[in-house]
Structure formats: C-alpha cells, structure tokens
Amino acid sequence: MMKLLFKAAIGVVLLLVLGVGALLIPAVQTYLVVLNLPEFPDWPSPKTTLVSEDEGEIYYATESPFDLEVILSGNGGRATTGLGYLTFPEDTVDTEPLPAMVVLPGSGGIKPGREHEYAEFLNGEGIAAFVVEYYASRGLSDETNYLLRTGSVTEFDLITDAYAALALLSTHPRIDGNRVGVVGFSYGGMAARLLMDDRIHQAIAPAHPGFAAHIDIYGPCFQYLGTKKTNGAPLLTLRGTNDASNDLEACATRESELRDLGVQVTAVLYEGAGHAWENSQQQFLSESSPYLQGCEWRYDEVGVPWVDGELLLSYSPNASRAARIAARLRMGSQLGDCVKKGYLIGRDEKTRNQAYLDAAKFLHMHL
User: Fold this and answer.
1) What is the spatial distance between Cα 169 and Cα 175, in angstroms, rounded to a whole number?
2) Distance of CA 76 to the CA centre of its chain
3) CA 289, 101, 55, 58 torsion: positive or negative?
4) Closest C-alpha among 26, 187, 156, 168 to residue 83
5) DSSP codes joined into one string, 140-183
6) Nearest Cα to 114, choosing from 165, 185, 162?
C-alpha cells in the first residue's frame, strides 16, 4: 500500500513539474518520469509463427521506438512483447485463407462499443480481425494518468505494433497475408494513415509487401511526414463535420498529398457527426479533452518534428525512452495556442451504422 501511495504521489509531482517545465532542468524531469513509469510486463514468450488453431489472445514480438527518427535510423527501439486479440468469422476453419484487418485503438485504449465490436463487424463481413492492445504491452492501464499514458506510447509505437502484427498474421494458415489491411480510430487512425510512408514500411517490414488497405477513422491530421512513396494501397477516411479534434482543412491537405502520390483516397464526411461515434458512452461535449489545431508538425529527413521553423523535440538521437517521454510531456508550452480543448464525443448510432456500410463497401472492393 505504501508503495502505491508513493507512486501516486510521484505521479502528482511529475505532472505538476511538467506543467511548469521551465522550473526544472530536463535531467530532473527525466528522473521523475523514470520513477513513475511502470515496468514492461513479464509476459509469455511471443509467437514467431501461427498455426490453424491460433486465435484469441496472441503474444507477438514488436518494438517500442517512440520516435520516427528511431524507426528511420534502423535501430528499432526497445524489444517489446505485444498483445492482440485474433478473431475469425464463424465456420471458416476449412475454407480458403481469409482477408484480415489489424485494428488500432484510439488514445483512450480499447473502448466498450468500439474495437472488439468492430472486430465482430469485420468477422460478419468474412474478414478476420486482430485488435492490438498497445498500452498494456508497455505496462500501462486504464488507471494510469491519461497524460502520462498518451505521452508514454506514441503513434510510432502503434505503427511498429501494426507492422509486427502484419508479419505474424501472414504466417497463419487461415489468413491470406497479401490481403491484410489496417484500420485505426483517432490516435490509431492517424497511425493507420502515417504507416503508409514507404520509408517506415522498409525500415520495419521490408520482407512483406505491406498492408493491402488502410482505414483512418477520425484520425488527427496535424503531422506532415514528407512522404514521397507508398506501396500504392488505397485509403478510406471517415470523419464528422462536428468533430473539432479533426482539422478538416488539414485532413484534406493530407489526403491531397497522398492522391498526388497515386494513392486512391476515398474521403467520407458525416454531417453533424462528432468523435468516437462507436463508443457505448452517451454522446456529450468533452470540455477537457485536448486536441491540436492551427499548427503543423513537419518532419525533416531524419524524422525530427519542427513547428513554425523551430524544433519541437530536442534531445540527442540516442536519448533514453524516459528522456523522450519527458520531452513530449513538456512540449505543450511550445505548442501554445495550437492546443485546444473540448469536442463532441460518444455514441451516434446513425453515423456508426453508415460508417460500417462505407467500410464494408471499401473492404470488399480492395481486400
């Protein structure tokens, strides 16, 4: 009990310190992050190949790079045992290999009404589904402070998990490895779109042709990776006109950039829809939920982000994960007026049903 109270106290101090980051030097902030971060879990050995009977909980080998520059450098990041939940359509044991989708949750993690229910929807369409649990694999839970949780696992960790899942699923006798797509919600939607960059593909999974289809469901669009090439797979984006967390002008720009590279992009806007329309939680205006609008993260050739000509994150290329987390947690002061709060979130049955129909049409066309 005393240990839990101590860690809780450290967590409060950490957030206070990072909230007024100018008062302490980065080394002290990093030390506080180290004190507060949970250990990576000691899980069963990850599978390297799958057999016909494999479904349900699957442990697989992945990495935690944290930053794009780590991926592009070829260093990979910390070795991590990932966890995912694999489900199949009923009565398909003896059929031809099936298409599959990797499902990436939003920043709130797996939510009632969303990820596992989306897997059921996919199964109903004759598609296997693999829901990624990216927080628990790094020692974080629903009880972990939201700021610390989202600051400790990045979109580039999700991207690495997605490609690791793709490689493993492709060994499953019941899955056609050339017909595996990826879908993500919010944070996961952003990752599902960003991982189209061929540099990332070649750095993480060069032996595989890559994902066959991508679906970005209300993923933020503030990041410009400078993508020059993809594997040519199509993209579907689904967004709501009343979702303030999606800067629709920025999203249109990102989609246009991909079209210029030859990607078939289908962009659907749902009039009056907010964010997370699949969630079981009743729709409401979440006044404290943060998002970015009005600034763009532009990544240079080595994978370092800049905002308005200034470095967003500054540390040595060989910085520890804790140092990187501390830097990301204190960067709010650099983003200034770009940080907004409050957007419409929660269950919207009409939009959910239409989004299912639009996704099914896209997937049956491309998988």
Assistant:
1) 7
2) 17
3) negative
4) 168
5) --TTS-HHHHHHHS-HHHHHHHHHHHHHHHTT-TTEEEEEEEEE
6) 185
2-36 confidence digits (pLDDT tens): 444 444 444 544 455 444 444 455 666 666 776 77
What pLDDT is recorded for position 314? 80
Nearest to 79 by CA among 45, 111, 55, 110: 45
Tokens representing residue 80 in the block? 């991590």
Q: What is the dihedral of CA 317, 323, 328, 332, to 10 degrees?
A: -120
Helix (H, G, I), strand (E, B) or coil at 81: strand
Distance from C-alpha of 10 to C-alpha of 4, rounded to nearest angstrom: 10
Tell me the angle at which helices 349-366 and 115-124 cross, rounded to the nearest 10 degrees. 50
Residue pair 237/355 in contact by the 8 Å Cβ criterion: no
Candidates 301, 312, 293, 147; CA nearest to 222 is: 293
Tell me the C-alpha distance between 145 and 212, whole Å: 35
- pTM value is 0.92
| Predicted confidence (pLDDT) at residue 209 exceeds the cutoff of 90 | yes
Burial class (CB in 10 A: 0-12, 13-18, 19+), 209: middle
Radius of gyration of the CA atoms of the chain, in A = 20
What would the pLDDT profile of 81-135 be if each residue is shown by its tens digit?
A: 999 999 999 999 889 999 999 999 999 999 999 999 999 999 999 999 999 999 9
Backbone angles phi, psi at 182, to 5 degrees: -140, 140
Between vectors from CA 304 to CA 106 and to CA 318, what angle results, nearest 5°? 100
At residue 6, the pLDDT reads 42
Distance, CA of 185 to CA of 360 (rounded, Å): 16
| Distance of alpha carbon 117 from alpha carbon 349, whole angstroms | 13
Quick: pLDDT tens for 289-332.
989 998 999 999 999 999 988 899 888 888 888 889 888 888 87
Which helix (H) or strand (E) segment is 223 a member of?
strand 223-224
